[in-house]
Amino acid sequence: MNVNEILAQMTLEEKAAFCSGHDFWHTKSIERLGVPSVMMCDGPHGLRKQEGEGDHLGINKSIETVCYPTAAALASSFDRDVMRQLGDALGQECQAEDVAMLLGPGLNIKRSPLCGRNFEYFSEDPYLAGEMGAAYVQALQGQGIAACAKHFACNDQETLRMSGSSNLDERTLREIYLPAFEAVVKKGKTRSLMCAYNAINGTFCAENKALLTDILRDEWKSDAFVVTDWGAIKDRAKGTAAGLDLEMPGGPNATGEEIVEAVQSGTLSEADLDKAVLRLLQFVKDSVEQRRPDASIDRDACRKLARKLAGECAVLMKNEGGLLPLKEKQKAAFIGEFADKPRYQGAGSSHINVPHAVSALETAGDAVLYARGYDAHSDTTDEVLLNEAIDMAKKAEVAVIFAGLPDAFETEGADRDHMRLPDNQNELIAAVAAVNPNTVVVLHGGSPVELPWLAQVPAVLCVYLGGEQVGAATVDLLYGKVNPGGHLAETWPIRLQDNPSYLNFPGEEGIVTYAEGNYVGYRYYDKKEMPVNFCFGHGLSYTRFAYSNLRTDKEKMTDQDTLTVSVDVKNVGSVAGKTAVQLYVRDTESTVRRPVRELKAFEKAELQPGEMKTVTFVLDKRAFAYWEPKCHDFFVENGEFVVEIGESSRDIRASRSVRVEGTVVLPFTVTENTTIGQLLKHPKGKEIIGNMMRSSAMSHVDQTDTMGEGSERMMQGMMMGIQLGALVSYGRISRKQLKELIASLNA
Ligand code: BGC
Predict the structure, then answer these.
(1) Would you place residue 702 in the very low, low, confident or very high pLDDT band (cuts 50, 70, 90)?
(2) How do 199-200 and 146-152 pair as beta strands?
(3) Does pLDDT of 457 surpass 90?
C-alpha cells in the first residue's frame, strides 16, 4: 500500500467520507483502491470486542475474555514492567482477534476522588501516569497494535463530560493535565490519541487547534492520528482544520458532506484534509503490515498473568503488630459479600465480559469460615447478616472483612455523590473490630473512600479493582505467598472536604473551574501539611527497606546538564520483597508558587533478604522546571534544589542539595508600574536602582520614633512596593528622567 499514491487517486468525497468510521468499531474501506477496513476496540484492562452489531451501551455482548487489574490498581504497582507485561498480553490478544487498535490507556488526572471513571485512570500525579502509560503503549505497539491515549485532555469528571468546559490556567494545564499525554506521545510514541468530549477554556477538544496541532504536532512532533471520543464532534470541518483526523463512530450517514462543502467554499483547505487522510491511511497500512493472521491466545496463561499482576498492584496500607501475613493454622473468618463475589472492574465502555471472576472464598476453600455480613446492593444494615458476622468474628482468631464500593458507585457517565462506603459496611467493620482485635479490612474500589473505623482496625489491604483474579491474588497476599509491594498512586484524604477540588467540583452552568491550579493531590495536601489517612506513595511490605549512600554526580549544574543520582537500597527484613524507590525534587527558593515536592523519577526494586542494590536515576531540566507563561515553556529558576529519596511523599529517607542555574532569561518589560522590588531582581535594574538608592536619602531614613516599632521592616516593605511612577510624585526624579530610566532599562 503506497499511501501517497492512494491519496492522489481519492476524490474529495472519498477523502471526506474516509474521515468518519464505518460503524461503531470499524474504519471505512475503499474497495476500488484496495484500502481495507480495520477494527478498534475498547480496553484498556482487557479486550472488549463486541460481537455482532456494535452499540455504545454494550447491549450486544462482547467476547468472553480475561479482565486484568484496572488502571487505578496498575498505577499502584509503580512498576513499568507490570505495564509491559499487560501491554504484551493485550497486544497478542488483539492480534488473535484481528483488532488493529485498543482504545487506551486512560490518562486523565484524578483531580477529585468522586470522578466516576477514576478506576480507569492512573494517578493524581502526571509523571507517574505518563510513565505507566508509556510503558503500556510501547509494549502494546510492540505487538503491532496501535494504542489510543485518551481522553485528550482535561476530562477529569463525568458530570457534563460531553458538554462542559474545563477552565484552567496555562501553567496548570502544562504541569498537571498534559504531561502524561506528552510522555505517551514522546516516549511511548502512541499511534493515536482520542480527543475528549469536553472543552478546555471554552474550545471543544475536537476543534481545538492549540491542542491538536500546535501542541501535539508542532511542539511534541507527533504523527499520531486523533480520533474523537464517540460522538464528540460538533463542527466536522472545524475539527479537520484543527487537526482532528477520524470521527467515530460514524456510520452510513457520516458521508463527510460538511467537509466537502467547507473545502468547496474555501473555509477548509484541502491540504488540511489531505493531512488527516494520510495519517489515517498510514494507520491502516501499518495495521495491515503488522497483522499476524496466525496469532493465537492462551487464555489460561492470561489468567495466570492477571493473578500475578493483581498481586503486584495491591497496597498494604496498615499492618500494626505484624497481623499480616496470616498463618495457615490461624482460624480465619472471611466476612463480607465481596469475599464471595469480588468487585474487580467498573462499569462503562471498559467493561470486560468475564466468564468467571475468582473469589477469595473459593481460593481459600474450607480453611476459612464465611459470613456474608452485608448486602452489597444496599446501604442499610441487615441485622441478621450483621449478627451472624459478629458471632463468627468472635469465634475466629482473625476476621478478614472484604469491603469496598458497590458496582453502582463507579461508572462511566456518573460521578459519585460522596466519598463514603455504604453505611452497612462501615457499621459491620466497626462492630466486628469491637469483638475481634485481629481484624483485617480488604478494600475494593477504584478510588479513595473515607475510613471512619481506621483507628479500630490493625490491618488494611487495598486491592483496588484488581481484575478477575483479584480474589486469588488477595489470598496470596493475605497469607504471604506474595509480599505486597504496591504504593499509592493517589492520596487518601480523611474527608471529601479536604480535597483541593472540593469547592469547585463538579462546577456549575457547564463550567468547571480548576481553581486549585497545580495544587492537585499531594501537591496540595503536603503544602497545607494536612493530615491524611494515607499519603501519596505510601505502601507497606512484609519486609523493610533501608536507604543509604545517596549521591549525585554534581553539586552544581545548569538546566542544560543532566544529574545522575544513585542510592543504595537494602532489604533489612527476613523475606523477599519489592519497593517503589521514589525520587522527589524540592525547590527551596522560588518566586512562584510551587508544591513542597514533586515526583520526578521512580524505580521498582526487588530484593532478597539482606540483598542491596544501587538504584540510579538521571534527571534533566524538567525535574527542576515549572511552566512559565512568560516564555510559554518549562523554565528553571536559579537556586538550590533538594533531591529526595522516599518511600512516600511524607517518608523521605535521604536527601541531597544541588545548585541549578537556569540558562534562559525571561523577557522583562519595565513600565511605570514596575516596582522597586521587581527591578531589584533584574540584573540591570538592580545596578541602576541600587545606585539610585545609595545616592538618595531613600535608603537611610530613621523614622523609628515617628512610625513605631517594626518601622525598618515597614520602610523596607513600602520601598519594595513603590512603583517607578511614584518616584515622580515623591519628587525623587522628574517625569523626563523617569522616561529615560524606563527606556534605558528596556534597552
Ligand atoms: C468513552 C471512551 C470509549 C468510547 C468507545 C466513550 O463513551 O468515553 O473511553 O473508548 O466511548 O466505547
Answers:
(1) low
(2) unpaired
(3) yes
Q: Which CATH class is domain 545-661?
A: mainly beta
Predicted model pTM: 0.96
3-54+62-289 and 545-661: identical CATH topology: no
Q: What is the mean pLDDT of the chain?
A: 95
Model confidence at 727, pLDDT cuts 50, 70, 90, reads confident
Question: Mapping DSSP to helix (H, G, I), strand (E, B) and coil, where does residue 664 land?
Answer: coil
Q: Which three cell numbers stand for residue 649?
A: 511523599
Query: Beta 626-628 vs 639-648: how paired, if at all?
Result: unpaired
Contacts of 68 (CB under 8 A, 6+ apart): 45, 46, 74, 86, 89, 90, 305, 306, 309, 310, 467, 468
Burial of 734 (0-12, 13-18, 19+ CB in 10 A): exposed
Instruction: Please report, for the chain, the start and end positions of each structural domain, with discontinuous segments joined by +.
Output: 3-54+62-289, 299-527, 545-661, 676-746
411: which DSSP letter?
B
For residue range 502-515, list pLDDT tens digits in order: 999 999 999 999 99
- Nearest alpha carbon, ligand 1 atom 7: 230
CA of 349 relative to ligand 1 center, distance in Å: 5
Pocket flag, ligand 1, residue 121 (CB < 6 Å): no
Nearest Cα residue to atom 3 of ligand 1: 349
Q: Which residues are identified as catalytic?
A: 229
Q: What are the residues facing 606 on neighbouring strands?
A: 578
| 153 in Cβ contact with 205 (< 8 Å) | yes
Q: What are phi and psi of 501, to 5 degrees?
A: -90, 0
Q: Does residue 349's CB lie within 6 angstroms of at least one atom of ligand 1?
A: yes
The predicted-structure confidence for 12-66, as pLDDT tens digits, reads as follows: 999 999 999 999 999 999 999 999 999 999 999 999 999 877 776 666 789 999 9
Residue nearest to atom 9 of ligand 1 (CA): 349
Number of the ligand 1 atom closest to the C-alpha atom of 148: 10
Residue 703's pLDDT band (boundaries 50, 70, 90)? low
Nearest CA to ligand 1 atom 8: 229
Which homologous superfamily is 299-527 in?
Answer: Glycoside hydrolase family 3 C-terminal domain (3.40.50.1700)
327: helix, coil or strand? Answer: coil
Indicate if ligand 1 lies below 6 Å from the C-beta of 230.
yes
Give CATH for domain 3-54+62-289.
Answer: 3.20.20.300
In tens, the pLDDT along 243-280 reads 999 999 999 999 999 999 999 999 999 999 999 999 99
Distance in angstroms (rounded) separating the CA atoms of residues 195 and 226: 7
Contact 193 CB / ligand 1 (< 6 Å): no
Q: Please tell me if the CB atom of residue 79 comes closer than 6 angstroms to any atom of ligand 1.
A: no
347 lines ligand 1 (CB under 6 A): no
Give the side-chain half-sphere CA count within 13 A for 53: 3
97 Cα: distance to centroid of ligand 1 (angstroms): 20
The type of residue at 664 is V
Query: Which segments of 314-399 does DSSP mark as H helices, in order?
Result: 337-340, 360-364, 383-395
3-state secondary structure of 402: strand
Alpha carbon of residue 515 to chain centroid? 19
pLDDT grade, residue 730 (50/70/90)? confident
**Phi-psi map region of 631: left, alpha, beta (phi>0 left; psi -120 to 50 alpha):** alpha
pLDDT in tens, 81-95: 999 999 999 999 999
Per the CB < 8 A criterion, the answer to whether 362 and 85 are in contact is no
Residue 706 has pLDDT above 90, yes or no: no
